[in-house]
Please model this.
Amino acid sequence: MPPITAVIILYGLGLTASMQVGLIGPIAPDLRASFGLSQAEFGLVASLITAAGALCAIPAGAWAARAGLRRSLVLGCMMMVAGALIFATASVSSLLYVGRIVTSVGYLLIVVGAPSWMAGFKNPKLVAMAMSIWGTFIPVGIALGNWVSAAAVTWMDWRIAVGVCTLPVLFLLPLLALMEKPEIATARRSLVVGMVGVLKSRSALQVALTFGAFAGATSAALAFMPAMLADNLDIGITLSAGIIGTTAIAGNIVGSVAAGTVLGRDVAGRTILIIFLPMMATAISTLYVSTSLPLSVTALIIFNVCQGMVAGTCFALLPRIAKDGLSMPALQGMLAQFAEIFVVLVPPFAGAMIDQNGWAGAAVVLGGFYFAGFLITLRKPGMAAPIRQNSS
Model:
């Protein structure tokens, strides 16, 4: 199987995993009505998709390296399907929680295993491009999940929406058996050695902290963005969601492809982060206080292109760090765990600031976290070499 076909299959798995995050918003009214959920209870249902990642992403990555990437991906697919079945057939609210927890395990195994497989290609330019494109799986998958779920729940039922958003796994799972093993095998260490290795790596820690601040701010920004645009621009929530979804997909793809292109030309990843994180901070702060439609759309486009650049770069830097003998799946797990921790912490903090200071409060918080990622990247100039994408 050509490497590009393998990239498509792996990216498809990532999109399906992220669709499990995006599907929950459109079914919220039906779900709350069916089970009598409070806002807090529904919030728990939504957030449990991050449970496995927040608790054990690093050990899960170390395990995947030892068990084999194909095995971990197959298990991830099976867990995602099982979680969706439990969720879609739930008759009591407790089964909703169980279903989302099971799904979170599948989500974690896929987001750790798929990019680790991509990093095993011999062509460094292909690796840089594949990892950069992989960086779009979250926003694009969430947007697809929103659209598919909204269509399904409008014409059919929320349970059907859950099934439709999980259906691609059933088509992609058999294709995993046809994929050749990664050309470059990942380092296999004991579980403890794999975990300790990535935690001791200063380069890995710096990228993970940068990505964590970025992911937490982005999660909060996207969560409040539909209501913010509707409020600031006096437009409907449907139009607001449409603008966000369209610009998210287009901007992230453009940004990630651009990141892969420049990394493939031996541009230091640290340079990309130093340029685009402050741009993200400026764009999101402008967006959250703007009452002008042209200015808001311009800021939103810039924000999404920068999002693709930053996410794609962070993922593309990991294969170079792994060349120091570290486990690539454990590195992916580290990135995921830091991201999920920040995703749990930043949105409530931003929400509290909105309660106190309106949308301007969110502008300060979100811009601050992106700027914090910039400062983390700046902290050690000597890190430029460890996070440089090698093209030879």
User: Anything to note?
Assistant: Residues 3-384 form a domain with the Growth Hormone; Chain: A; fold (CATH 1.20.1250.20). The two ends are 24 Å apart (CA to CA). The longest helix spans residues 202-233. Residues 381-392 have pLDDT under 50 and may be disordered.
